[in-house]
UniProtKB/TrEMBL annotation:
Pathway: Ketone degradation; acetoin degradation. The keyword Signal does not apply. Gene3D superfamilies: Histone deacetylase domain. CDD domains: HDAC_AcuC_like. Belongs to the histone deacetylase family. This is Acetoin utilization protein AcuC. InterPro entries: AcuC, HDACs, His_deacetylse_dom, His_deacetylse_dom_sf, Ureohydrolase_dom_sf. The lineage of its organism: Bacteria, Bacillati, Actinomycetota, Actinomycetes, Micrococcales.
Length: 391
């Protein structure tokens, strides 16, 4: 049995809003080229499989049938449906939008099926992570919410508790809203404060609906939060919540747009910190739920120097063959990336380990990040029987 399965097909590149749109298919193309250049397909612990045939029942597990029909109609006619977020600047209409978006959902949810069946420990879909789509509307480049469908698939297969971990710079609002009233799902999102960034949500006071209190965990950080403080914040909340919740499976979203080079957000989290956080999610899956973990892509618009680096290393992490920080990038990939983009790629995978201060060393009220962390802990921890300052 392979440890990890990476789903890939060139068909995933058809999720394409057109020239000039930030959600460029080149992000995925360059990622897969780097996966190959690192020699990951030769690892016996990694299986690269084609995506299965699309299934609309997986789409309608988290989306209203009327909305799915609206997507199909908009694709067929080209007419906007602004009430449902179709035909906006963020979500332009393109002819194969239903097929492309449902393909992402099926790919991600099928990984949940394989993980739950014990065929693999971990699944990866770098094309997934469309976390903004809501039950009845497109939002933020996301037509269908494959992340939510993956969580739902685990539940439908028998999982009693599923944890969703969102590392994107933008709040994982779509997944949170879909499971707002479901105590079987904990959604954790670390993101730039919604008062300063789309979608404007994700306050630490938003903790879940009636009967599902403290199931939504929002860690809203100030702009320009750096790697050390970001890691401190994540460590101060995520592992404690997940250990208390004891999930049967973990679904994680690894949008890379928290990086300082990203044009659509204002955080300053380096590649090394993002990979460190991915390794934490991996370790928590091994510790808490026998390794049942599905990792997805997401946002990220520094197409050459960030996205392919983080996601190829995520694949390596899931395959238990992690790539050391600072590893030189293969020259053949750098040449291909420059030819495709006209930009000079980075020479190395990050810069090396990040030094950060754990929460146990004390709370600093003068630090805006520490204040944000404490706000989250104060809203969530008491409901879990935990002390906001000590646990």
């Amino acid at each position: 049995m392979s440890v990890a399965r990476l789903l890939w097909s060139p068909e995933l590149l058809t999720y394409d809003f057109g020239a000039g749109h930030p959600m460029a298919p080149a992000r995925l193309d360059l990622t897969m080229r780097l996966v190959e250049a690192f020699g990951l397909p030769d690892s016996p612990s990694l299986e690269i499989a084609s995506i299965p045939a699309s299934r609309d029942d997986l789409v309608t597990s988290v989306h209203d049938a009327g909305y799915v029909a609206a997507v199909q109609r908009a694709a067929r006619t080209g007419e906007p449906d602004l009430e449902r977020g179709l035909g906006t600047e963020d979500n332009p209409i393109f002819p194969v939008m239903h097929e492309s978006a449902s393909r992402l959902v099926t790919a991600s949810a099928s990984l949940a099926e394989a993980v739950w069946a014990g065929e693999i420990q971990h699944g990866v879909n770098v094309a997934g992570g469309m976390h903004h789509a809501r039950r009845a509307a497109a939002s933020g480049f996301c037509l269908y919410n494959d992340a939510a469908a993956t969580v739902q698939r685990f539940l439908d297969l028998g999982a009693q508790r599923v944890a969703y971990v969102d590392l994107d710079a933008h709040h994982g609002d779509g997944v949170e809203s879909i499971f707002w009233d479901d105590p079987r799902v904990v959604t954790f999102s670390v993101h730039q404060d919604g008062r300063t960034l789309y979608p404007g949500t994700g306050s630490p006071a938003d903790t879940g609906g009636p009967g599902a209190e403290c199931s939504a965990v929002n860690l809203a950080l100030p702009p320009r939060t750096d790697s050390a403080r970001w890691l401190r914040a994540v460590d101060a909340v995520l592992p404690i919540v997940l250990r208390e919740f004891r999930p049967d499976a973990i679904v994680s979203q690894h949008g890379t747009d928290a990086h300082g080079n990203d044009p659509l957000a204002d955080l300053n989290v380096g590649i090394d910190a993002q990979l460190e956080a991915a390794s934490w999610v991996h370790s928590l899956a091994l510790e808490l739920c026998e390794g049942r973990w599905v990792a997805l892509g997401g946002g990220g618009y520094a197409v050459v120097d960030v996205v392919p680096l983080v996601w190829s290393a995520l694949v390596a992490e899931a395959a238990h063959v992690p790539i050391a920080p600072g590893t030189p990038l293969p020259q053949e990939w750098r040449v291909a990336a420059e030819e495709m983009s006209g930009l000079e790629p980075a020479k190395r995978l990050g810069r090396g380990a990040v030094a950060w201060r754990p929460w146990s060393e004390g709370y600093d009220p003068s630090d805006a990040v520490d204040r944000a962390v404490l706000a989250t802990r104060r809203h969530v921890f008491p409901g879990l029987g935990l002390d906001p300052f000590l646990d």
